[in-house]
Write a structure and sequence with these properties.
The protein has about 270 residues and is α+β, with helices and mostly antiparallel strands. About 45% of the residues lie in helices and about 20% in strands. It has 10 helices and 9 strands. A 6-stranded antiparallel sheet has the order 6-5-4-9-8-7, with helices on both faces. A hairpin with a 3-residue loop joins β2 and β3.
């Protein structure tokens, strides 16, 4: 620190010099609208933003002209076109980045671990995960692989494949526990049930004590591109809990991810 006060980074000064006040004020007008205040008068907007009525009016009318705001002459409200402002950001995000906040919300609700996986060969590969207590002997992280046939997410992904591709993806079926479905014909029947139900529940087939339920994640074209699951230890929760309590929240999570994917590709 100098005798005249704290030192300043020249880069900070450059940022301040490039600051466009009009843009900042225009964004503050957009942010003045929210769920609690979807429609506002000119006076409301001026008060919420700290702008004069004249300045608020100029920004609102500019936004009306651009199609981001509509007005009936007294009240102003945002239009759906304002969503375009977020599409550039969403388009730069990958599936894991899109899924992460929804998984976090899901875990806060069900208090169990949740993940998203994709199919790679005859394995599922974890691409996003939010964990609570460790429930497997093997630590699960992004990049972890498991045989698809013995996992809930894997079966959801396999069930979405055409029959000829499914045969190529099954690989060698080995019993990993005494509950694992390792017979091809039986597994095909199980996958048919998964396809019809729209979800898959696996009870201790990958590892003793591990239960999970999974649902598909579809892109804007309706193609299954990933799967999401909730997993728990058998000592904590039953299969009935997974189906009746966790599954509705898991489906809502998958729907939220799908909505973001549609925004990216829409």
């Amino acid at each position: 620190m100098s005798a005249t006060g704290p030192e300043h980074d020249p880069a900070d000064h450059a940022v301040r010099a490039e600051h466009v006040q009009s843009l900042a004020r225009g964004l503050s007008v957009i942010k003045a609208f929210d769920g609690a205040h979807p429609a506002q008068t000119l006076s409301d907007v001026a008060r919420a933003t700290g702008l004069t009525r004249a300045a608020a009016r100029r920004f609102l009318l500019t936004l009306v002209e651009l199609g981001y705001v509509r007005t009936d002459g007294r009240l102003f409200a945002l239009t759906p076109r304002v969503l375009e402002l977020g599409y550039s950001y969403l388009s730069a995000l990958s599936l894991p980045e899109l899924a992460a906040p929804h998984l976090e919300e899901l875990v806060e609700t069900v208090h169990e671990s949740a993940s998203v996986s994709v199919l790679d060969g005859d394995d599922v590969v974890y691409v996003a995960r939010v964990a609570t207590a460790r429930i497997m002997a093997v630590s699960i992280t992004v990049g972890t692989r498991f045989p698809a046939y013995a996992t809930s997410m894997g079966r959801v992904l396999l069930a979405a494949l055409p029959p000829d591709e499914l045969d190529a993806r099954l690989g060698a079926l080995e019993p990993l526990t005494d509950r694992t479905v390792a017979d091809r014909d039986t597994l095909r029947d199980v996958l048919g049930d998964v396809r019809a139900a729209g979800y898959c529940l696996v009870d201790q087939e990958l590892e003793d004590g591990l239960r999970s339920v999974a649902v598909p994640i579809r892109d804007a074209a309706g193609t299954v591109v990933a799967a999401a699951n909730v997993s728990t230890h058998a000592l904590r929760n039953s299969t009935a809990w997974l189906r009746d309590e966790a599954l509705p929240h898991l489906r809502a999570c998958a729907a939220a991810v799908e909505a973001d994917l549609k925004g990216v590709r829409g």
